[in-house]
Specification:
Layout: H1 6-51, H2 62-72, E1 74-79, E2 84-85, H3 98-101, E3 108-110, E4 119-121, E5 123-131, E6 134-145, E7 150-159, E8 165-175, H4 189-193, E9 210-211, E10 221-222, H5 229-243, H6 249-255
Parallel strand pairs: 9-10
Antiparallel strand pairs: 1-2, 1-5, 3-4, 5-6, 6-7, 7-8
Length: about 260
Amino acid sequence: MQRDSIGGTFTVAAILCVVCSVIVSGAAVGLRPIQQVKKAEFEKKNILLAAGLIKEGESVSAEQINATYEDNITVELIDLDTGEPAVDSEITLENYDQRAASKDPEKSTEATGLTSIARRERYSRVYLINKDGKTQLVVLPIYGKGLWSTLYGFVAVERDASDKLNQIAGLTFYSHAETPGLGGEVDNPAWKEKWQGKRVRNDGGEVQLAVIKGVAKSEFEVDGLSGATITSNGVTNTIQYWMSDEGFGKFLANIE
């Protein structure tokens, strides 16, 4: 076959495609363990941020993240329908893919109430900080729709003056595609700081915490995001859903 012929050109192109595919596939497989480690570190960092165990902007190494996490956090898998520890011989903390479960009809349930998500997983991880045999703070994974995307984050709830798990200790959103400078301000440390100390439920047990338009005037309100009404409403709906009995409400009541 002539080197400059059409057939020769296609042959060279085909060989290059195969070689490149093998290299890319090999790199993807080879890097997967490293990606999994980095993903786990990123998740741990956000849990620690929500819990206030590390600070925004603080430079921390992977070793520090892992050590702080191991020294302070206890992880449990709970049944959201009952608020009790999950009982399923096929599911463990190590093998459970929570995000995939939320999309599987056999492992999830229809989400109702103030949320735009269609389904939520039956089981969820929760992250506890215990002291003197008592849970003092819990970090809960949450997600809900904003304007352009699903926001994924963690909210930390601690005991208030009445000894109920009813006070926000911290909030972080680690994954979203909201508009930078508008809805993307859910990432702004100054805005997230406004959540600290806010109460979740009123004395009657109703979830009242909400992002409002304008400046907050009560312990149940958080300043709205300027120019991002839909994202603000999405955050409100997300918080109110996951703090209700359809989310983590039963679990919080059980450990109180």
